[in-house]
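Here we describe the complex-level prediction in full. Unlike the single-chain runs in Section 2.1, the two entities below were treated as one system.
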Amino acid sequence: MKGSESLLATAKTAGVQVCFANPGTTEIPLVEAFDQVDGVRAVLALSEGVVTGAADGHARMTGVPAMTLLHLGPGLANGLANLHNARRARTPVLNVIGEHATWHQPADAPLASDIELLARPVSGWVGRTSSAAAAATEFVEAHQAALRHRLPATLIAAADHMWSQGGEPADVPAAPARPAVADQRIAEIAKLLNAGRGRSALLLGGHTLTADGIRTAARIAARVGGEVFVERSPARIERGPGVPPVRSVPYFPEDVMRVFDGFSHLVLIGARTPVAFFGYRGMPSYPLPNRLEVHELADANQDAVEALRTLAEVTGSAAVELPRAERPQGPTPKGPLSAASIAAAIVLTQPDQAIVVNEGVSSGAAYPAIAAAAPPHCELTNTGGAIGMGMPVATGAAVACPDRPVINLQADGSAAYTVQALWTQAREGLDVTTVICANSRYQILEAELRRAGIEQPGEAAANLTSLGSPTVDWTAVARGFGVPANRVTTGEELVEALRRAHAEPGPHLIEAILGTPTKQRVKGALEPN
Amino acid sequence: MKGSESLLATAKTAGVQVCFANPGTTEIPLVEAFDQVDGVRAVLALSEGVVTGAADGHARMTGVPAMTLLHLGPGLANGLANLHNARRARTPVLNVIGEHATWHQPADAPLASDIELLARPVSGWVGRTSSAAAAATEFVEAHQAALRHRLPATLIAAADHMWSQGGEPADVPAAPARPAVADQRIAEIAKLLNAGRGRSALLLGGHTLTADGIRTAARIAARVGGEVFVERSPARIERGPGVPPVRSVPYFPEDVMRVFDGFSHLVLIGARTPVAFFGYRGMPSYPLPNRLEVHELADANQDAVEALRTLAEVTGSAAVELPRAERPQGPTPKGPLSAASIAAAIVLTQPDQAIVVNEGVSSGAAYPAIAAAAPPHCELTNTGGAIGMGMPVATGAAVACPDRPVINLQADGSAAYTVQALWTQAREGLDVTTVICANSRYQILEAELRRAGIEQPGEAAANLTSLGSPTVDWTAVARGFGVPANRVTTGEELVEALRRAHAEPGPHLIEAILGTPTKQRVKGALEPN
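The structure predicted for the assembly as a whole is:
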């Protein structure tokens, strides 16, 4: 068989379900192979930022690597920002990047560029095919590396290796297990917690943020008199009955300092030490109280779930009964829309087992603040800060979970990056409801200008942070890409529109026009999720 | 003054007129600086592919470096594909990429990544600011490098260097001149041409493609019995009365072989040796007849214009009278639309001194084939093959030349990459008329499948090359971004729509629905421009 066919057959053996793609001429042998080899579904996207974000969303939901197929250096380049987010989410995305035929590479044809350099900043592994015969084995290397590092892996596939005969499917070893945390380390942390010398904060991240993981941590916290926090911008966090509500690490450094005030120990469990999202004058990079000692139980790649389970045993917390968490009543959205009332409307109408993709930016933090009132769901967020992840990740999550409704809480500025995702949602008939928080501004930048002491931006600064003149008509854009859409301006209308969207299959977009924002910073309201 | 202010003041001194921007928090000091320092206009775009493509288009028209302002690694990443095209166009784009404050960089905050690695494949020069005091001088280094190499240059500007006081505007030396071609080389080429041992093809590229440059080459060809060709996909080519029509190097290698058949010498004048756009089985990378000898008069960076002028003198061609080129009558577009009739309608209605940005891909080659019938104009094309350049380059060209109408002949698949450019066209009131060649397919990929022997693509391949289900409604998308739009299906309607668009100021989009394509390859019709 051809190299391309052996690669795809091996991808199937490896459990890869979907390949999100935007192919070109160098990928033609792989395009053909989808018709020769069953089992991996090809999903087309109109631009590569959608391809990579969708692969991230798919893999976040399935835990299985999703594949991308991209066209040479420029195709990869267009997908890098969402691969950056996938890297921060520790998502095992498998990129296959078509490259010129080996004998054609020295000619430096117009589309030639250094694909390896481009791939390295976002990949835990970068490699090249060496022949049609070896391509499948090299794909397995990429696959194993993606799972070993929990990072994107990038295989650069030369066109002649793909179109040539001589390929053979390769065996796929069992997925590498996450490295275990040493028992001694767990014992040390248990001793620390049990010693009771000052209050402890348990900071959960990565794959611990399941209902089970959060409950286990809450039992430990209850036993040792600590509190559970979750990392800012988790790749995926579950909420539902019996999942105790937990606080998130805030965005601005002064707020991070504040939430950890009074704690003596911070125990990292699959999470990194909190770091300021940006460096601010007079603020430290690690915004933690001086007296807070940081201890790592498990890093983001280790088996933090198992470590947490063992820690619960060792601390005698495994059997702790958690207080029965009543599902609170969510607020009722009324009148002109705000970030808070948009979140309230989503919570109020949210179907069971929804996947909420939150790229609300300055409108985003309002949702997790009240999400305990929602039925069981999981939330996926922007892990790397590269905007334009919301619509693509929602697309990939919907492909991964056709039986679960997807709600995309989406800032307008970020939506403008990768709005082409709507077309794939329409084509695949995906059950995604997008709520555009339309404030027609880069509101987070206005907040940053104020932090920099600019209360009255000049004309140029005002222009560079405004999305008005003209305001984008998101309903028209959505319809252009094949997604039915409507516009709402009040909480009541939004509730009604959400109910209709949830009742109908297929994608919908609701443009939620925010009321005039006040210039004053309302606590939390301007904080990005 | 602040580092950011010194940088911007120096940019002004250097002649930079416009900074296309999509800033974030790390760029706030530069955002502020636009209000403190006059002279450089900031133009916002909704995504970075628009920013970099617009800078390319602006610099192609003005010859002066255009600046970009991008947000960290992900912002640069989103703009890389059009910087790849700018690199191939040899356009001096000046990228300023905001970076975390120096003291915050070791913390590896979520948005941190290796900006230098990302920048290198598209830049002739990459550097970092070292302090507020040195930032302006470092900007000058970037500026000089961009002009010396005729390539994008990338300066990574740390936020603390930008916000700190101590900046001072720097002196800007005269723009580096292009390296001169040695007289001896010119004499050798002259001797070769005058010897008359076989026919010579003069291949023009780069900055020689002005009315004057083409005329000079035509005089030499007339004198020595040769023929003038122009490189495939020129960054900018002028046409008009007295500019002799010249043949382009074709796209497919077998066609390249054919056009140079019968020639003994190929003289490169600011152009590279023709290279196959992709490597095809059984085809060489350099598709030239065996007996064709290649000689380089001037490479793409040298002063090919001056070398051409001298060559004309030395060959005794300077005074050759060219046959008076009559402007031919263009064909009249009638009935269902084809690539040919779209080109005909554009030519028929084209205002004087238009700038035609041609990213027609499979509908693109029809335009240059008949452009001699159009009034004086220049054409900008996709130099690097990274699709999504048309709308951004048209935007930048329109900002550069507010008194010239811009016509963007635009393939639909490529339009979907950077359609956000329409918003900037609306905001800035740019006189751009976009004609979407809507065939709802990646037609070039269908052609490539047939070249690979696949006459009847399977379902997966058909899906991966089709833009149908749903077809994009380009008029809705355009209106969503603030650009008035309409749809046409016949040559007569297109002529009418173009006339209306040209008569009104501001941007317009016309969706030109192509008739059902035949599966047969019509010579030239499927050849990308």
